[in-house]
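Project outcomes to date are best conveyed with an example. Our students and postdoctoral researchers have been running inverse folding experiments weekly, and each run begins with a structure described purely in tokens. The record below, which covers 187 residues, was selected by the lab manager from last quarter's runs and is presented without edits.
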């Protein structure tokens, strides 16, 4: 049975400030973009009316990225999207886009899975431990875990919440020492 994770609930106040209900603090569009890059689903609702504003804010995030020169969507695709809103056949476009992105996600997951199976190091004893240590090291250095969607940290270089910086550094030193010991045993 697959476990569905509830989306992160963000409430918009009358002042237009956005409130993260999990952490009880205010967030920005960049924060919401970071949550999504990290694999979280978000739901943004108006506190007073209860209206779902998620679509409106996601479009705003995309528009801001595009205006900063972080273009992902070619002009031809944007033109086709505008045309689809004006066409009576518009009902086909959302399903086509959803299917295309589902195929893209599945393809990326399969590529990552295949890389692990064809990687000769993956058969080496202790490889999973070394991989986990590398991920922990990257998390400590960037404040995020690498995922197929955000590369190696996705540009969000905030330190991880909890534990002090000294604790993280000590943990990294310990993991590196353990890794060096395991590597020396393999020689």
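After processing, the design step wrote out the following sequence:
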């Amino acid at each position: 049975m697959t476990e569905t994770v509830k989306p992160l609930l963000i409430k918009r106040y009358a002042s237009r400030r956005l409130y993260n209900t999990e952490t009880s603090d205010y967030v920005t569009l960049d924060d919401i973009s970071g949550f999504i890059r990290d694999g979280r689903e978000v739901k943004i609702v108006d506190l007073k009316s209860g209206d779902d504003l998620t679509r409106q804010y996601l479009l705003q995030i995309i528009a801001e990225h595009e205006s900063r020169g972080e273009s992902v969507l070619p002009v031809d695709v944007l033109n086709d999207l505008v045309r689809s809103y004006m066409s009576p056949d518009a009902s086909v476009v959302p399903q086509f886009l959803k299917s295309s992105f589902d195929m893209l996600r599945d393809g990326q997951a399969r590529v990552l899975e295949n890389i692990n199976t064809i990687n000769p190091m993956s058969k080496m004893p202790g490889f999973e431990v070394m991989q986990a240590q590398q991920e922990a090291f990257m998390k400590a250095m960037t404040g995020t875990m690498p995922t197929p969607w955000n590369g190696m940290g996705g540009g969000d270089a905030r330190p991880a919440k909890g534990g002090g910086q000294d604790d993280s550094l000590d943990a990294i030193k310990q993991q590196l020492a353990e890794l060096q010991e395991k590597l020396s045993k393999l020689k």
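Residues 145-162 have pLDDT under 50 and may be disordered. The CA atoms of residues 142 and 156 lie 7 Å apart. The training component of this project remains on track.
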